[in-house]
Structures are given as C-alpha cells and as structure tokens.
Amino acid sequence: MRAVSPLLIQNARASAEFADMPGARLGFTRYLGVPICNPQGDAIGTLCFLDSRSDDVLGEEDIRFLSLLAMRVSAEVERERSVQARVEEVSRMAERLAEANARLEATVEQRRRFVAMILHDLRQPLTGLQTLLYLLQNDPDPVQQAAYGQGLQNRIQALSRLLDGLLQYSEIEAGCFRLRRESVPLTALIQECIEIAAPLAPNDAVQVACEVDSDLETVPTDRDKLTHILLNLLSNALKFTPQGSVRVRACRNGTERWLLEVADTGIGMNEAVQERAFEEFYRAEGDTGRSGHGLGLAIVRQLCLAMGAELSLESAPGAGTRYTILFPFNAEAWR
Question: What pTM value is reported for the model?
C-alpha cells in the first residue's frame, strides 16, 4: 500500500473516524497516527499517539516529533530486514559452497581413481609386451612366432589408443586444440575407422555395416576430430555387443546439417547410466573394465560441442544403443 498522511483527531469522542478504532473503547480523547514507511514510500505500519488525560491540543510540533520517531522506527525495521536478508544470502552461499566443495572432493576422488586405473592399465600391456617379446625370442616355431607377433601388435594398438585418449583429453582440458576444416570423403573415412575398431569385437558373430547416402560423398569437417569421434563410438558399440550388429549411417538432414549415427544391438543402458554416460571418468557400477577409462564419450561430447554438433543418445537395457550426431555444413557454427 502507498504512504498516507498523518491522521490527527483532537476530539476522539466526537469523531466518526475514531469510533471504530480500538482506542475508542478505552476512552481516549485525542489520536495522532503517523505512517511508518519503507524506503520505497509504502506504508508498512502506523505509529500512534493516544491521550485520555490531557486537554492540550495536539499541534505541528507533535506531528513532527512523531514523524521523526516513525522514521527512526522505519530505519530500524529496514536495518533488521537488511540483516535478515544478508543472513539468508550468507546461508545460501554457505550451502552453495558446501555443494561445490562436495563436487570438488568427488572430482578429486574420481581423478585419484583414474590415475590409479591408468597406471594399472599402462602396466598391463607393458607386462604383456614383455612376455610376448620373450616368447617370440625364445620359441623357434614359426607358427607360434606369428601368433606372438599378432599379440604384440594387438597390445601395442591398445596402448596407442589409451595414450591417444589421454592426449586428446589433455588438449581439450587445456583448450589448446584447433579445428581444421577440410573436405573429407566420408565413406572412405568410415570404412577406415571400422577396420581399426573391428578387432575390439568380442567374436566374429558381430557384423559391422556402413551406409552412406550417395549425395553425401564428402563433408566439410576436421578429419582427425571426426575420426576420433567415430572410433570412440565404434569402440563402445563393439565392446558392448556380444552378438548381433553395429551399423554406421550417414545422410543429409535438411540443407544445413548432416547426420552421423552409430547404432548397435548390444546390452544397452538403463536411464541412470545414460544420464552420466558423457561424464569424465565415469564407469558404470559393476563394470568389469570393458568400458575403458571413462574418457571416450566425454571426449566425443567436447569435440561435438566444439564442432557445433548436436549429440544425442538413445538406449534401453537389452535393446541396444544409438548415438546420433547432427553436424553443421557451415564452419561458422564451430566454437
């Protein structure tokens, strides 16, 4: 409500305005009411002077005195409100700091586990390499030597993928990677990625198919970054598809974007896993190690953001997983 003027009643008993006021029942003869206003000029209360014993007439001095007193009361009320608002603000800040601290502690713990995991996973292929190298040097059988050589190659590739992922992640975190636009033959790139990722399939029963629309022979993109995205998605699809198929599809999506899809018929994910699938260092509960180091999908998400692409995930337990990316033809959408 807006501020009102002071109300002065010299003869309360004869005033119709005063008759309904509580003071009338107590026998008061004079009434002076001054509004208490907030800084915005709204009345928030009234400071009243009631007299039942004096016959003195209330005048301007009384109004000024009571008005000054009302201003002091208003200032105290505003100060109390300001203090209360500050207390509430500090309380909210404390809650936000506590939440931020909890997230920081969780991140530190995740990173600690990640470092331990990386050290373990670096040691594994190195130990395997040493063992296979020893066997290769000491077994004269050519057939066994060929098998050991293939084992060495597989472990070297696994180690290379791990180091590539760590390097890519460190570049993204440091913000020092650059995008390079070039015209890329899409079918050839997809086939190359399929050949690289194929050894990750659990068995020969998993079929990998590629489907690219004829009007999408080349796309304007960063070849290395697109290769990294596709290899990560293919690796995930193959590792989690014990049987069935993995399909890569590319087509136009209107005049401004083109679509890349990697779909599998594997074990799928529940909603809880889907919500955290693109987080750094995240590995699903009960994972026995097939999901890697929790960086692959996080890197895919960051690269898609940098390339102005929209990344989405659809999945259900036992019904497979589909990753869909909408890339812009225009490089101006790149970050």
Answer: 0.56
